[in-house]
């Protein structure tokens, strides 16, 4: 690909104001991808999650707001590497076409945005910037369509359609943190015919004597009245505090007695 200094002005596309993709990779290798051509249209969709409840003898339902869904930016980008020129020096300088570049150098970057890096829990976060529009999220559903080829099958023109879904970044925790969080969560256990509160305490807490904590958590006055099918909340395990043991050596052990 020749330098922009070697491209005639009539063929040089202004880069000021071009849309860009800011790529924030989990590994820290961030980069900015300048779109070769600005998109001709953008489509942003956002939807609220609602729950409807029917009422007896009523024409209208009760609508309950359950939260918002992620917004989605749908866009299409064009790439063309078939018109690559340079100017030969001399009094009769004319633009001469170079060997066209494989357009996959651009489309490959977009395709990589849906892949997770080695030993990393997520794909990169992508921010689309163009004018006043700033949209961040994860890329999904990439579709590449090659529309022009050079002799030998080298693709030189392509259309890339993809979506960016806005979302909060949730990093996968280490196994130690996961185990700690699981142990700090309150569980819900269903009592079977062969179960009782003592068995539940032994299985979930590792100690049958912890039935008192289970009973307290569920406000049970008489553990014998817990029937099959009942759901019990099991409180998180308490971390055993290790007491410091005295080494048995007296501070005065180093003293000499007469």
Please provide a written account of the structure.
The chain is mostly beta strands. The protein has 2 domains: 4-165, Beta Barrel (Elongation Factor Tu (Ef-tu), domain 3); 175-234, LysM domain (Membrane-bound Lytic Murein Transglycosylase D, Chain A, Roll), CATH 3.10.350.10. The chain is built from 4 helices and 13 strands. The protein has a 7-stranded antiparallel sheet with strand order 2-1-9-10-11-6-3, covered by helices on one side. A two-stranded antiparallel sheet has the order 4-5. A two-stranded antiparallel sheet has the order 7-8. Residues 1-15, 171-182 and 241-254 have low confidence and may be disordered.
CATH architecture of the largest domain: Beta Barrel
Strand neighbour order, sheet with most strands: 2-1-9-10-11-6-3
What's the domain count? 2
User: How many H/I helices?
Assistant: 4
Counting DSSP E segments of at least 2 residues, the number of strands comes to: 13
Topology-level CATH name of the largest domain: Elongation Factor Tu (Ef-tu), domain 3
Provide the gyration radius in Å. 33 Å
Strand proportion, as a percent range, falls in 25-35%
Helical content, roughly? 10-25%
End-to-end distance: 95 Å
What string gives the helices and strands in order? EEEEEEEEHEEEHEHHE
The secondary structure category is mainly beta
Mean pLDDT: 74
The shape is elongated
Question: CATH first level of the largest domain: which class?
Answer: Mainly Beta
Sheet of most strands: 7 strands, antiparallel
Would you identify the regions where 5 or more consecutive residues have pLDDT less than 50? 1-15, 171-182, 241-254
